[in-house]
Amino acid sequence: MDAAPLAAEDGARLAGEWIAAWNAHDLGAIMALYAPGVVFQTPTVIDTLGIPDGRVVGIDALREHFERGLARLPDLRFELQDVYVGVRSLAITYRWRDGTPVCELHEYDAHELIERVQALYEGLSW
Known about the structure:
The protein is an alpha+beta fold. Helix content is 33%, strand content 33%. The chain has one domain: Nuclear Transport Factor 2, Chain: A.
C-alpha cells in the first residue's frame, strides 16, 4: 500500500472484509487482518484484559482480547454505517450489537494489514 490516500473503493473493500470477518465470528479471518506488531487501543481492553490504559501491543495479546470478547458476546454483530478514507488509513463507523455507535480508526501497513487501531464509543461510561 502506497503512502497515499486510499481510494474510496479500497476503503469500502477493506471495511467490508473487516465487517464480514467479525459478523462470521471467524477469529482466524479477523486476526489475518492485523499486522504482527499491531497497537490496539479501546476501552473494552480494560474490561477483557484488565489493562488500565486499554492498549494492547502485538497479535497474541490482541487475539486474547478478541477471543474473550467473542466468547462473552456470542450474538455480536456489527452494522456498517460509513467509511472514511485517509492516507493509509480509514475510519469505520458502525453500530454494535446493542445499537451503540462506534468509530474505529485503522491505520494500515504496506501490506494492507492493520497496524494501529483507536476505537471510540458513543455514550458509554467505562
